[in-house]
């Protein structure tokens, strides 16, 4: 097996980890190594270790994909954005920006970047993070609209700081409408409360869940839990 063949196999491994969100530690799992050996016995070197994948191969793949995306965006005339801010379980905050555009007469969407927000979620700080991403991809002058949720800081970031047209997310707006509709009806609020209580009971009791599944089987119903 040639060196180029080995490189191609190693890069396919890294792409699998990236596309399928696999843990990098998979390259050290005995089952994975045995499976890989069966697939191609001629592949004699061990797969790249976690350090090489983390420090060399994934950054290299990222740069390759980023450069390809920069080239695509250079060829398009308009770009629409969707963006959102969220906080992880570790209380780290991030803003993600996705671009939507027509390339070769085909509607395409690409995640441009997910950036960590180390400062408060003010409109100015969010706008600064988004502006940096747009500058990195040279599309600041191509953005025609930005879709985000109805949060005041997002609207402020887009309209007041970025000076771009803002479109509230339809799904988020419908969700707010549904929540408001449920909150004004005491009957609906009581029904929702009972439903949550039922779901909570079965989630916390394996015995009750087993009995429910048995009853569903007896009635010929599709299991809901």
Automatic annotation (TrEMBL):
Keyword Zinc-finger: yes
Annotated compartments: Nucleus
Keywords per UniProt: Metal-binding, Nucleus, Zinc, Zinc-finger
InterPro entries per record: RNaseH-like_sf, ZnF_BED_domain_contain
Signal peptide: none
Organism domain of life: Eukaryota
Listed GO CC annotations: nucleus
GO molecular function terms noted in the UniProt entry: zinc ion binding
Main localization of the protein described in the UniProt heading: nucleus
Protein name, UniProt field: Zinc finger BED domain-containing protein 1
Lineage, uppermost ranks: Eukaryota, Metazoa, Ecdysozoa, Arthropoda, Chelicerata
């Amino acid at each position: 097996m040639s060196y180029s063949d080995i490189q191609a196999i190693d890069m396919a491994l890294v792409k699998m980890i990236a596309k399928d969100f696999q843990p990098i530690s998979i390259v050290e799992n005995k089952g994975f190594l045995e499976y890989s050996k069966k697939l191609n016995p001629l592949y004699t070197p061990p797969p790249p270790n976690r350090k090489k994948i983390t420090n060399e191969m994934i950054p290299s793949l990222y740069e390759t994909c980023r450069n390809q995306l920069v080239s695509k965006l250079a060829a398009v005339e308009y770009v629409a954005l969707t963006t959102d801010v969220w906080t992880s379980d570790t209380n780290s905050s991030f803003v993600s920006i996705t671009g939507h555009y027509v390339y070769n007469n085909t509607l395409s969407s690409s995640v441009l970047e997910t950036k960590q927000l180390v400062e408060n979620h003010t409109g100015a700080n969010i706008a600064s993070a988004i502006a940096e991403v747009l500058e990195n991809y040279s599309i600041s002058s191509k953005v025609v609209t930005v879709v985000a949720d109805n949060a005041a800081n997002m609207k402020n970031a887009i309209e007041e700081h970025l000076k771009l047209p803002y479109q509230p997310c339809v799904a988020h707006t419908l969700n707010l409408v549904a929540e408001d509709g449920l909150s004004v009806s005491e009957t609906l609020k009581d029904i929702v409360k009972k439903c949550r209580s039922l779901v909570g009971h079965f989630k916390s009791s394996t015995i009750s869940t087993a009995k429910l599944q048995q009853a569903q089987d007896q009635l010929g119903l599709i299991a809901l839990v």
